[in-house]
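Good morning,

Both structures are done.
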Amino acid sequence: MKNLPISYFLFLALLSFSAAAQNSAFNYQGSLVQNGTPANGQFDLVFRLFADSKGGNQLAPEITLENVQVTNGKFSVELSFDFQPFTSVAAQYLEIAVRPGSSTGEFTTLTPRQHLTSSPYAMKSAFSTFSVFADNATNANNALNAANADAVGGTPAVQIIKEGDFRLSNARLPLPGSADYVQNNSGSPQSASFNVAGNGKIGSSLTVQGLTQLNSNVNVGGVISGDGGGLTNLNGSNIIENSINASSLAPDSFPDARNLSQLGSLRWDQLARKVTYNGQGKALVFDGTFMWVILTDGAIRKFRVSDGGLVGFLSAGTQPGGAAFDGQNIWISDTAGNVVRKMRTYNGVVLGTYPVQNAPAGVAFDGTNIWVANTASDSITRIRASDGANLGNIACVGAFELAYDGESMWVSTNPFASLKRFRASDGVQNGSFGASSGMAGLTIDGRSVWYAQNYTTGCLIRQSSSSPGSESCVASLNTADASDAIWDGTSMWVALNNNTLLRVRTSDDAVIGLYPTVANPAAIAFDGSSVWVAGTNEVRRHPVFPVR
């Protein structure tokens, strides 16, 4: 008969014992592969024991087992070659031959022979000199049959470990979720605490979300990055002299020689302080306590106006247009989503999302209702601030920016050269007035309507709100375009695209000064004591020097 191409692997050889006395039986488990595939079915097996891996004398009669079940290549048999082959510590080898169970032909001998491990040599203990010649055979028999003969330290072996015990793969106590359990987990944060007395190493980034106290020296071999906005309660007297170079300090965030000179001459308007962020400013709105800086990507940076501290990171949607404060909440238009969102001031929670028409931009509050200019729909949507009820849409071609004078809502239209006025109580239009095209920064000082004319020969324009229709150029923009304007109670401030601020006293139209500010200024706001300007990667706060 043609030999079968069969290979096998030895998995485990164990010697089993009886309670009364030892015997030579042990369990053999193997793996049988036929033609490269785990075998299945019944096979006849012959087992022979030799002293050498090749050739040599057979140590015991062979054992033939017929119709041994093999499943997925695995089989298990019990073999017994009697006591004698295991009384020596010499090497012993097991030879196996195989044929299909349905065959009566020749067996195929598998190579190489399997070297028996030390487990079967436990039989040697049955022939130990001390066991055979024990002075007190009765005590030996008692020991063999003692109640704790099958125990470790007095504990039954089955209580310590057994095949399939879940404790072999399960985490040790304390179990996950207990108060003192710390586990490598990139998912939800754990509430566990830990105390490490030795050294440690972090191979990647480390994020700390809570309070971190360091009571010993910290040696950093790499770079610690950040803007330092989270550093508080620093004592300047504890900073080692010359450990921070003067050139490393931002001139607008610390009283350097230039700022001290300005302080001595009481030029508060030029003592600007800046805070950096990543992005481009789009809108600014003051809620009475905090200044909200809204970026073009929808991110919000919230600053405390008392000291300029950054206190919040929020989101205003994907493409914000404008913003307004209603005395309790912030309203922000989303140009891409055609909605306006109402956000709680102290925590930024969105209290409601209200649909408007296409491409909303300017947002204003009249004391009762929120007005939203829809640039792509030539309309204005009115929403009741208290409950978000939609009061309807008002036609207004080119509606862009909004400003409220206490009775009426003024609307600039771009690119159309006109100002439109609507009665706040019912939304009825009660005026339309010619104006220069390219209007930006629509604002009201209580008596007049102001805006900037974005041309090479552009001007800061004023129209009387009581008798509008005629405009006057108050100040030249010096070939710069304007992005926004605000009134501080005595002066009109205009943000120009040449990175400067123009200040004009409204009582007599006198130009007070032109001051450097952020790059690409886009929005401006007043907090009662300082003018804030948002631009590329920073917002700058300019303390206002009163003028009369």
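Second structure follows.
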Amino acid sequence: MNRSLPSPYGRHLQGSQDEGLTDAAGRSHLTLRGFGVGAFLSFFLSIGAPYANMAMRATNMAFDFNTPGAIFLFLVLVGLLNTIFKLAARDFRLAVGLALLATGGFCSYWASRGAVDWYSPGFWFGTFLALSALWNVPVVQRGGTLALNRAELILVYAMLLVVSALCTMGLTQQLLPALTGIFYYASPANQWAEKLFPLFPSQRILVDDGAGNRGFYEGGALADIPYATWVEPLCWWALLLLSLYVAMVSTAVILRRQWVERERLAYPLTQLGVAIVQGERGTGLVNGFLKHRALWWGAAVPFAYGSLKALHQYDPSIPNIGLIWWVPFIGQQNLQIWISFALVGFSYLISTQIAAGIWIFYLLSKIEAEFLALSGLKSTSKFVYGVSYEPLLAYQGGGALIAMVLLGLWTGRGHLRDVWRKALNRNANIDDGDEIMSYRAAVIGLLFGTGGIAGWLWLMGTPLWVGALFAAVALLVFIGISRVVCEAGLAAVRSPMIAPDLIVQGIGSQTIGAAGVFNLSFAYIWSADIRIFLLAMVANGLKLIQDMDRRSRRVVFWAVVVAIFIGVTGSCWMVFHLAYKYGGINLDGWRFHGGPSTIYNAAQRALEPAGADWLGLTFFAGGALVMGLLTWARHHVLWWPFHPIGFPIGANFMLDKIWACVLLAWALKKLILRFGGAAHYRTSQHFFMGLIMGEALCNGLWLVIDYFTGKIGNAVFILG
């Protein structure tokens, strides 16, 4: 019997090894050079993203899981900087010329400006280029290069993903206005002072500068920022955020092997980054992946469309073609057709079963919403986030999401058992050397993190059992949405129901108490409008490291820690500057008015005694039951065509914006597989990755152009 591998499969394995991230000796060659570049680009993204959407009112570069800011900076690093440094390494004279050009251009530009703006992202990036060019001269003289290798590129990209989750929507622009808004917007009309001020915890977790925080909201106070009033509240919040992020990183580590190696989730959001990294072979000036012609044909489509849209802002005579339509569906229900090139690209990289499940369950949710409207069934709950237009569908989706997570944990119970045994030293044969931290550290981190969240809420006056229940539910919701992102590639998705609403309105405010209701309203900051968060980004980052050697993987943990610190501090620094200089209400109406008002209005509304929403909880249980049946059908009924992952998120309003992209990608993929086969499908992937790349390039390049021209309000690709 011939026991050798078939030759095609052998060639496939050999190709995979050739495209790996290690050399022949199994080393990844991680250096401080890569760590330094990652740290700077993380800092640049942390200040650049809030500057773009607040000062320039331009495209949001870090609001959703598609992370165009991270992709753009990574393309600049790989396609431009790496190429330049490879070229300069060939001749010492080229290195000297590059240094003179970079430093001369930097000095002449800022000399013409008359003064250095320390808060300008352009100043920091120019400084980075000039210092890198100068540093490159002695490196080339010694026969080296500043061009990063593949392992270092992975490190940089993982750090950029982490920062994307923190610098705008994920934390900073939610946190800082929420801590100040209650004093600025309190009035006799809303009665916050009478009803909410008495519920303040003894710990100082809110910021009051004695003047209603007018400088933060109205500007003109850059020289008199009251830093002292911020220190104590931010220290208290740092304790909560430390617990939250430790729990998230630990959870990502615990679930990595189950999701990556056993279930082999698709991770569509990382496939472009992986392809770019694998194209960096160390030979030749240009990255090998960037040489694919189909990639650039795909990139040309969103780039051309986005450029026309951007030019329309400069000259209204240039046509601006809309890609949004509304069509009637059933009864009072309408369908929104919104084409996003990047979302089409991401959706093309998932299986047709998952894609079909997403758009079919979306249409079914519209039918169900119409039925509920005609039946007269009403929930006593009122939501702002999640499925706010129909609370019963929110409960149903929330139950389905929790059930999906619990079923997934049950499926991976063997792996979770191994993790627990390794953490307790009961099985030395279980190997955790390929993780960024040991299983013992991950389990301790998870317990410490969730306990820290519950303990923080308890210190603020929340009953301990409520805090513990809330921490568990919030973590399950985060895991569920992370699973959707990693498996279905939905770059714009939110939870159908958020943890604060489920606890407060589901159980009933009279059970939780006034202090508990008020404290849980603060969870809106980090667990409500969660269009991007750390757990999902770390989970995607851990997909990137699967070919690294073990020693390098442990370095990635410290890179994640550094990226978290840089993302939080850098973005806080920029938001502080912009708010106190220009006024927050002049920069971002929703973050500085709508967001804080929602938190405190919800708290005030929930203070009215109310019992459990039994009808809502019935739909919650029904959603969980249906999710269980759909999961059973997928595993036991061979002809069952729809993946159940679309059911929990089917009624999500974000699907209004993306369902058509999923349907289009599904139809194109079915046609290509039917008439072109697997070979044509593999080739076509470059075109659809080009759609993702082209949208990020268009966003980034027009940001650069608008920065130098001073154009305000030129948002190219946004999901609203």
